[in-house]
Amino acid sequence: MYTISFDVPSKTLTIVTEGFWSIATTAAFSAELLARGTAARLYHGRFVVLADLRKASIQPLKVVDALEAMMPKALKVTSAPIAAVVASHLAKLQTERYLKAANCRTFLDIDAARAWLASDDHPPDEAWSCGAVSRNAASTSSTVMPNAPASPDTDAPRSASVRIRAVSTMVL
After folding, report:
1. Which residues contact 35 (CB under 8 A, 6 or more apart)?
2. Contact 54, 87 (CB under 8 A)
3. Mean pLDDT throughout 137-152?
4. Cα(42)–Cα(24) distance, rounded to whole angstroms?
5. Residue 171, SS3?
6. Are 21 and 59 in contact (CB under 8 A)?
7. Span 141-145, average pLDDT
8. Is the distance from CB of 55 to CB of 19 less than 8 angstroms?
9. Pairing state between β 137-145 and 82-85
10. What's the whole-model pTM score?
11. In which band, very low, low, confident or very high, does the pLDDT at 94 lie, cut at 50, 70 and 90?
12. Of 18, 51, 69, 140, which one has the fewest beta carbons inside 10 Å?
């Protein structure tokens, strides 16, 4: 139903899908895509995505909704261009429902998609809507502290780590 591969020399994550998907297939795809995309980002840095959806069927609304719900997470993995290639105008409309960030484009021709991915005609990373911090947006991070002091609610020391949340504001 799908394959996900990464080409190191071109720094391209390639997705090929086919057929009619179930919610279970969509959930498995989402988990694998996020895991492989995160690994690619950690090991290889910034990468582009080419999604070949030409053999995929028009998907049921629940599948499209699940893909739309997954996209904010996926868009945090890469801020580079994401190109999807579909077989019909109806499939293009459906794909554009969940691939709507500034760094995403849907094509009917795979050569046009590849040319767009290879071009330098893209805004800088901070201009992408996926993962970029907007003006006055707050970001949070967690730090784990081992050997935490005793809990104020009990006399026993905590065996687990304490999480401290740091909030910072970035203005672009």
Report:
1. none
2. yes
3. 35
4. 27
5. coil
6. yes
7. 32
8. yes
9. unpaired
10. 0.72
11. very high
12. 140
Q: Which residue carries 């967690």 as its tokens?
A: 142
- Given a contact cutoff of 8 angstroms between Cβ atoms, the answer to whether 19 and 57 are in contact is yes
For residue 156, give the amino acid letter.
A
CA distance 71 to 96: 12
SS3 of 25, please?
A: helix
Angstrom distances, CA of residue 166 to CA of 18, 85, 141, 142, 143: 43, 41, 6, 6, 8
Q: Is the pLDDT of residue 31 over 50?
A: yes
Distance between CA atoms of 97 and 57, rounded to whole angstroms? 15
Count of all residues that appear for the chain in the document: 172
The amino acid that residue 161 corresponds to is: S
Check residue 57 and give its pLDDT: 97
> What are the structure tokens assigned to 101, written together?
């960030």
- Calculated CA dihedral for residues 72, 97, 21, 78, nearest 10 degrees: -30
Q: Beta 12-19 vs 2-7: how paired, if at all?
A: antiparallel
User: 74: closest CA among 93, 44, 106, 98?
Assistant: 98
